[in-house]
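User: Can you fold this complex?
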Amino acid sequence: MNLLADFDAVRGAAPDKLRKVNLFETPRFFCDVYVLGPGQSQAAHVHAGSDKIYAVLSGRGRVRVGDDVHEVRAGHAVCCPAGASHGVENPGADELRLLVFMAPHPKAPA
Amino acid sequence: MNLLADFDAVRGAAPDKLRKVNLFETPRFFCDVYVLGPGQSQAAHVHAGSDKIYAVLSGRGRVRVGDDVHEVRAGHAVCCPAGASHGVENPGADELRLLVFMAPHPKAPA
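Assistant: Here's the predicted assembly.
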């Protein structure tokens, strides 16, 4: 694994769905960049034993954690604790880019 | 714990040493913002069982991981695997701000 990554260079949404680019992963965590075009979303879901952070790099988003909805923009981070339903959508006109951390890795690499 | 944090608002170095502001922590991870003024550093150290990421929000830095030195700027992330000596310094003239993620939490909260 390359220990240096350029997340600023990860730009450009996929046409059909949320784009995920992995930066790092170990048995203990993963770190991805997600890029969501206008109108794209990640449906609400649960990780029973892992916490996730969405840290907004650019754009605007709407993050759901349990029954709460957070309107977020660049410079906001949201913690989604293990067991809490969570998801994110891009209601804006610009690309939404997120730095995403999850620990422990739900599907740990060998 | 507040599940929404504004890391963009964390600015301003401490006069005497690296400033750390915790955003989130669980038994599984912590997420901090570090602010280093010009010339400030975090001395090289090791976490035997935890991985760390330094993600540069603004400024320029020099991150050491084992025997490697990475010159980094905003948009770069460096992974410091468990067991690897690592540290960071601010050799620049501007504030260096880092989003720092560690998993698992080395001193897990109750």
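The CA atoms of residues 93 and 103 of chain A lie 31 Å apart. The two ends of chain A are 13 Å apart (CA to CA).
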